[in-house]
Amino acid sequence: MRNQKTTGWSRREFLEGVALAGAAAVVGWRPEFGMAAVEPPPETTTLRIHKGKPACWAPLYVAEPLLREEGFTDIQYVFGHGPEVAKMTVEGAIDLSAGFTGASIYNLEHQQHPLKYLSGLHVGCYALIGSERTRSVRDLKGKTVWAGAVKNDGPHIFFSTIVSQLSDLRKT
Fold it and tell me: What is the pTM of this model?
């Protein structure tokens, strides 16, 4: 078979691969489990996850069966809002939380919270709604705009970051 990434598969090569996989299944061949299956269970089996309202946090909720498979037996969802989430994390009431990256970094820089970032979830769920006079971010240059109800909160930081780039934009 040719390399799929450089030349792509032909229809014939694809069907050959499917037939081979089907034959392997019929004769009962199963791949061996990888190293993850033989790892010992985690040292702690309790995991307290911050529960929030945004729909974009759904991966935290649908991951519960996978977490249980990894050895976490006591999975709890803990409610908290805004700055109290960082405090709850520092106090050990929350083990894992999703959050808006911009606000988390702001809090890390200005409030010295000992947080660790495991991975990114999203950078923001915000929309810029314009009119006939405002069709792009560039059209906001030199105008007064609203950047969120709470200073240094998620929407404010997200929009301020976008608008701060206006000085670097050149009309083309």
Answer: 0.54
